Amino acid sequence: MQAKKRYFILLSAGSCLALLFYFGGLQFRASRSHSRREEHSSRNGLHHPSPDRFWPRFPDALRPFVPWDQLENEDSSVHISPRQKRDANSSIYKGKKCRMESCFDFALCKKNGFKVYVYPQQKGEKIAESYQNILAAIEGSRFYTSDPSQACLFVLSLDTLDRDQLSPQYVHNLRSKVQSLHLWNNGRNHLIFNLYSGTWPDYTEDVGFDIGQAMLAKASISTENFRPNFDVSIPLFSKDHPRTGGERGFLKFNTIPPLRKYMLVFKGKRYLTGIGSDTRNALYHVHNGEDVVLLTTCKHGKDWQKHKDSRCDRDNTEYEKYDYREMLHNATFCLVPRGRRLGSFRFLEALQAACVPVMLSNGWELPFSEVINWNQAAVIGDERLLLQIPSTIRSIHQDKILALRQQTQFLWEAYFSSVEKIVLTTLEIIQDRIFKHISRNSLIWNKHPGGLFVLPQYSSYLGDFPYYYANLGLKPPSKFTAVIHAVTPLVSQSQPVLKLLVAAAKSQYCAQIIVLWNCDKPLPAKHRWPATAVPVIVIEGESKVMSSRFLPYDNIITDAVLSLDEDTVLSTTEVDFAFTVWQSFPERIVGYPARSHFWDNSKERWGYTSKWTNDYSMVLTGAAIYHKYYHYLYSHYLPASLKNMVDQLANCEDILMNFLVSAVTKLPPIKVTQKKQYKETMMGQTSRASRWADPDHFAQRQSCMNTFASWFGYMPLIHSQMRLDPVLFKDQVSILRKKYRDIERL
Q1: Which residue range or ranges hold the Glycosyl transferase domain (predicted)?
Q2: pLDDT at position 140 over 50
Q3: pTM higher than 0.85, yes or no?
Q4: How far apart (Å, rounded) are the C-alpha atoms in residues 485 and 650?
Q5: 713: left (phi > 0), else alpha (psi -120 to 50), else beta?
Q6: What angle do CA 578, 580, 585 make, to 5 degrees?
């Protein structure tokens, strides 16, 4: 038996070798005869196209890169496989393979930075209110330019938000209108905003015209059609979404345990047929009417009765029993199933209500997923595993639930509460892609105060910002720079500014003193300034305007800034105590003179008051300590219109700084112990040189309050009744036991 097997193996091997030699010989003879024909043809001056060789031929040099969306237009010499053709043709838009490296011209951004140009509105073109809000947000931002030659990014004035052909907002003939734009350039460096695409019955993601190489800022975009690091997924928002500001989140107290009346809720339409119907039709399997309340109604549309099923009447009756707002505000988790499209209004509603979203929309690229870690704020479910949702959310620990709810509030207020924030977040993401060397990291985007207020142009090191000391294990700065704002000439050695300079210089925490000379008179000679143990630098203010006191001067070498008016009266002890308090609250303004705001019902406007009460919302920068990053933010984040107003009035710069810091931190400033004579000292300053003596000064500040609130879109100032005093302050104990004993003697 073994001998037969050996004979069979030898016979098979011999047959294989014979076949190999036979076919190899044919190939060798064919190649030799082919070479002879070529040689003969070349001798006779003839050349015939030869068939492909048996061995592969490699090109001498690499071909230049061709964007995928241009493959169909290139010469036929560029070979495209059938699979590549099929993939390109099956795309909803031709530039499916576009990335920043292949479909974006970075050279436009190198000269003038990240500037955005909005096409001028064409006569007769209708623009929906939502798109008007988007364009207004861009035009009001620091990125906007009216000069297309300076632009890095271009945005259409043609309304592209609603591309549902059945919608009254649908813009017809958009294809030809876009192609006629002289700056279109096949969409290169263009950004297109879109909320709705496709129509009944399949609701595809086709926007109805060739976007070329343009980027999409699109709601309800699928992971299949989303081009990573090129498109931006934005949330679906309603036409009533505020343009600026927006309401704050509804989480008022961090209660433990963080459980509410309902564990899981949903209330919305149920689609009987068509795309998006499967998930919502199955919700009744999970509804228990107690802590899991999932309500649907098929009572929508004109022909709903023609298509209603056996559950419709019962569902409609149950649907009417519950108030949606009451459910939303009393639920721990909110179900966010897909609708006809992947996105849903329920997403933003849940975020604002501090109701943890439970996503049931397979394939949805979540909003701003490039920078936001949604695992910290939502539960990502699977439509195919609907029945497991209740047990899954019940297994989440209470500490985790509280953390999820807190993150929903941060994300809502940082990126989603207004159209302006949605637009600015989109632009900041694109800017980070262009300037990768100074782009924000995940910590900045997912931690307070968020990516919109942390400008990477200031520094690429997190330790240079006042918000991340704890995360980095760093201690707050141990020294400060005193910046004294001088506006009156130096005529006497007994002037308050010189006494203030000496008092600040004696502080153990003072590193240097900068005198900002905003006076019309020439700089005093060096010998006019008193001798101190720390350096004294005198610099002239830029253009002699009020905003120059908040410029990010390179001379400021410390992170902490002690801002002082020339007529402020402070002792060294008070300076020391204020700085030690600030070290515990480095992101806030800490200081002495406090003011407050209120709503005047009779005039329906914000009011400003300097009354001495136990309530305050501002600490004036005439005697306050804050982080120097706010100088950079004041100069580069705020619009020129507000700073010009401050400069024209020579007033309100301290109010504007308080608005800015409170908007960033969502916290009030901190007032420290006031010395007894401060009020009397301020009341006694009635000289014409003091702006406090100006009768129009108070009226101007009232007007500033309302102008600032209008630009921010809401009132960022927050009231506080907290005042920090030294330990044993005014206690009936020996003065020798008190560290800041001089404060009580003043």
Answers
A1: 480-729
A2: yes
A3: no
A4: 13
A5: left
A6: 90
